[in-house]
Design a protein that fits this description.
Blueprint (H helix, E strand, L loop, with lengths): L1 E5 L2 E5 L5 E5 L4 E8 L5 H17 L3 E11 L1 H18 L4 E8 L4 H13 L4 E5 L1
Parallel strand pairs: 4-5, 5-6, 6-7
Antiparallel strand pairs: 1-2, 3-4
Helix pairs in contact: 1-2
């Protein structure tokens, strides 16, 4: 997996993994594309470290934009674990906000977002593209 930095953006590009774009000025991380790795552990462990680092470097603030075309079960489990951890950090006096984007006719991605929304207590916004 390769992370690279360009200006105020950092992206990770790997086969079958989502693209991660960090927008420092906006205190935002965008995660988009397909997450269909057979073993997502390495990718999501690195993503978790990066998101925690961003949260602290953004002064305990983080906005996450998710725009998945596809996410498999293993990736969903990792994402749940990461979001629960970030939520616990935000409960100590920070701000964490999630925007979950989906196509109007994509019931699978919509339902995945609804599941995350139902178990999290942080601001969670479902948004149709």
């Amino acid at each position: 997996m390769a992370w690279f930095v360009s200006g105020n953006k950092t992206k990770v590009l790997a086969q079958n993994s989502p693209t991660v774009t960090i927008k420092e000025r906006l205190k935002k991380v965008e995660i988009s594309g397909r997450s269909r790795m057979a073993d997502p552990s390495e990718f999501y462990e690195e993503l978790q470290r990066k998101l925690i680092s961003c949260y602290y470097s953004f002064n305990n603030t983080l906005i996450l934009d998710f725009n998945f075309e596809y996410i498999n079960t293993g990736s969903s489990k990792w994402l749940y674990h990461i979001l629960i951890h970030l939520q616990s950090l935000a409960k100590q006096g920070g701000l964490l906000e999630i925007n979950w984007y989906y196509e109007e006719d994509d019931e699978v991605i919509q339902e995945a977002g609804e599941v995350f929304e139902s178990v999290l207590t942080i601001p969670f916004h479902m948004k149709i593209l």
